[in-house]
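Deliverable D4.2, example record:
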Amino acid sequence: MFRSISSIGSLLIAAAILYAGNGLQSTLLAVRADLEGFPTAVIGGLTSAYFAGFILGCRFVPGMIKNVGHIRAFVALASIASSSALAHVLFVDPVSWAFLRFVTGFSFAGLTMVLESWINERATNANRGKILSVYRMVDLGSVTIGNLLLAVSAPSGFKLFVLVSILISIALVPVALTKTSSPAPLETAKLDIRELYRVSPVGAVGAMLTGLANAAFWGMAPVFVQKVGYGSAMVAVFMSTAIIGAGLFQFPMGTLSDRIDRRYVIIGASVAGAVAAILLASFAGISQSALLVFGFFFGGLIIPTFGICAAHANDHAAVGKAVATSGGLLLLHGLGSVFGALAGALAMSVFHPAALFWYIAAIYLLLATFSILRVGLRPSTITKKMPYIPVPKSPLTRVYKKLAKTPRG
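Output generated by the structure prediction step:
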């Protein structure tokens, strides 16, 4: 196991540095945009622009990797992402920032694609779950550190933008100097959303709904914390607490979903996550303790849910359909994310900052209701499940399940 981890050590180091920079940038931009007086709906639109770029990146970056190779593609995309981070300081207006977020989303789709496909190919069927679990821990830990870096300087200045650019640029070094052999070129999956829904209604609908809810959280929660009276330091702590909760809940929820019908876990997590969202909406402004405690449980319940939906869909996918299934889930999740961030922002603008979490609660209650209906319409017939693998915020890991060649029951 340790030998397998050491063989991808340089890739994990690059991922850690890269995701720390992206975690800092996402929270920083939401806080800075609020300080600049951007309308709340516009701030949500910035997150939507990021996910729109991410979707296109998933579509077009494989061709780039096929033409120039993994390392050159990584270097080019990291350079673009690093430059985009600095450009936010030069052009402080909503239109420019929306364009830059689109470019950043496109770049990070490719950067994540390179790292995850590379790690997947270095893994074997015997150790893939463990290696991807380590990768998931690196992802969550790095994003937590990135959010905490928000407290090292004032968001109103330029130093944090420079720090983001430095982190993304340094991530180039481990990849450029790695001795790990590059994987085979990626292939673009042919997507069939209608077939995906036929095979797994809960997986397809769950992918869309978790995108609608979770993107609103990632994009607008920093603004919510500020609106209810806390400073930028508490923004960093709150976001980090939610991510820590996700890391701690990830494996218990995944293990439980391996033992029982995954739809029951989706139902339970959705209902409990909705309750946590309602508690945040109702009591977050009362005290810091309430904000952090409810944020911990909220993050722990909602962030892993997409991974369970994806595992459920793969349980039902036919042999040889892993890439199409995973690609369809990614597309649905991305489309939900594009509209979700904007919907959350509009809810905050029209009603009250707390409306963000009422909106998220409504989405998860909808997912729970749909899953309950599906349990009644189609009892579980799975005799051998796909092993649950934690899925990062950018759910590209399952796009490369084709490499695993894991048999399905």
